[in-house]
């Protein structure tokens, strides 16, 4: 029996519950309702999901799977008992951890990573928790950073006949110009980069997005027909936990997800303990730490290596990762421009 077939009710419409509902939606699960004891919330909506009392939810969705924090187990049990006594109802209730369910949901809660504030980076590393906003003023004749990432993403998109290119953290959009006549472009960024992007790229869909809050909902119709680019962005994010969860789910739906980020050891040496010299960066990984991070957040199958740092240097100082459910079909690239 599929324990999710009758839908899911989330116990608590706070910050964690709201976050969890988005992850479940991305993963394709049916969320029936939120339960919350705050009467000011009852009758409202959270992420297009109704918030109601436990009693109302139990009457409407008696066979749903109720998901709650273990912290609220006793409250849940007491409320359920009171409802059963008032209405002479019976229900068989058992508790288990998500990972022990017969159908693994494939994500974890952010609280499980609170002890790892540096996201798999070596012990003793110092992050820059007050990064400067990065305004992408790069011009067409300037040095191009990560020059091969977009070229290779285009090759992958054509291989899989993607309809969409999604660029998360798109900056000024200059590197998207070559895609204009081949794909529908969906760009995510915020602040002053939006104006630069619109000036450089004519026809596109733009979603103003603070990536510290994760990735807004993108329909499966788009995701399942898209190649997604996330190029040299993660090092700018103060707390990338929610973003990484969102990307992990996207990696299981999109044709491919391409991620790049500078390799700390190659640029600054193995004895660097931060903070990054680039004041726009929060933290930087080496390739082994970054591979561990992707595994920890349960990304789909991937290959990982290095690519050119910029258009004038021969150094392969940037980590390049290609993630796809069809990893064996990923086309080969130019070995002078990257090595897996």
Explain what you see.
The chain folds into 2 domains: 8-106, Rossmann fold, CATH 3.40.50.720; 114-339, Rossmann fold. Helices cover 25% and strands 18% of the residues. It has 340 residues and is of the alpha/beta class. The protein has helices at 15-26, 54-60, 73-87, 147-159, 193-200, 220-223, 241-251, 264-268, 287-296, and strands at residues 8-11, 31-35, 45-46, 49-52, 65-67, 164-168, 184-189, 205-208, 226-231, 256-262, 302-307, 318-323, 338-339. The strands form 2 sheets. It has an 8-stranded mixed sheet with strand order 8-7-6-9-10-12-11-13, with helices on both faces. A 5-stranded mixed sheet has the order 3-4-2-1-5. The protein starts with 7 loop residues before the first strand and ends with a strand. Residues 97-115 have low confidence and may be disordered.
Helix content: 25-40%
Which second-level CATH architecture of the largest domain applies?
A: 3-Layer(aba) Sandwich
- What's the CATH class label of the largest domain? Alpha Beta
Number of helices: 9
% residues in beta strands: 15-25%
Count of distinct strands: 13
Ranges where pLDDT stays below 50 over 5 or more residues in a row are 97-115
Strand order of the largest sheet: 8-7-6-9-10-12-11-13
> Compute the gyration radius: what is it?
22 Å
CATH homologous superfamily label of the largest domain: Vaccinia Virus protein VP39
Oligomeric grouping of the chains: single chain
Number of domains: 2
């Amino acid at each position: 029996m599929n324990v999710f077939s009758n839908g899911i009710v989330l116990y608590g419409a706070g910050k964690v519950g709201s976050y969890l509902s988005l992850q479940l939606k991305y993963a394709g699960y049916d969320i029936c309702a939120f339960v919350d004891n705050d009467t000011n919330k009852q009758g409202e909506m959270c992420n297009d999901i109704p918030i109601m009392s436990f009693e109302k939810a139990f009457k409407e969705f008696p066979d749903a799977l109720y998901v709650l924090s273990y912290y609220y187990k006793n409250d849940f049990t007491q409320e359920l008992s009171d409802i059963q006594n008032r209405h002479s109802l019976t229900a068989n209730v058992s508790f288990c951890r998500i990972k022990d369910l017969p159908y693994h949901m494939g994500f974890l809660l952010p609280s499980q990573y609170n002890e790892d504030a540096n996201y798999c980076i070596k012990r003793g590393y110092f992050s820059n928790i007050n990064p400067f906003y990065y305004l992408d003023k790069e011009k067409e004749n300037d040095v191009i950073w990560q020059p091969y990432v977009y070229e290779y993403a285009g090759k992958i998109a054509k291989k899989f006949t993607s309809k969409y290119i999604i660029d998360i953290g798109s900056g000024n959009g200059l590197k998207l110009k070559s895609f204009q006549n081949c794909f529908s472009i969906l760009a995510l960024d915020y602040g002053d980069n939006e104006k630069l992007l619109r000036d450089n790229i004519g026809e596109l869909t733009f979603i103003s997005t603070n990536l510290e809050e994760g990735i807004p909902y993108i329909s499966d119709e788009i995701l399942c027909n898209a190649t997604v680019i996330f190029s040299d962005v993660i090092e700018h994010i103060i707390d990338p936990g929610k973003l990484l969860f969102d990307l992990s789910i996207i990696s299981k739906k999109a044709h491919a997800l391409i991620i790049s980020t500078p390799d700390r050891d190659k640029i600054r040496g193995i004895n660097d303990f931060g903070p990054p010299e680039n004041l726009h960066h929060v933290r930087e990984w080496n390739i082994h730490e970054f591979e561990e991070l992707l595994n920890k957040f349960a990304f789909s199958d991937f290959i990982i290596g290095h690519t050119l740092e910029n258009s004038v240097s021969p150094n392969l100082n940037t980590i390049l990762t290609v993630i796809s459910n069809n990893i064996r079909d990923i086309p080969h690239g130019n070995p002078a421009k990257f090595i897996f």
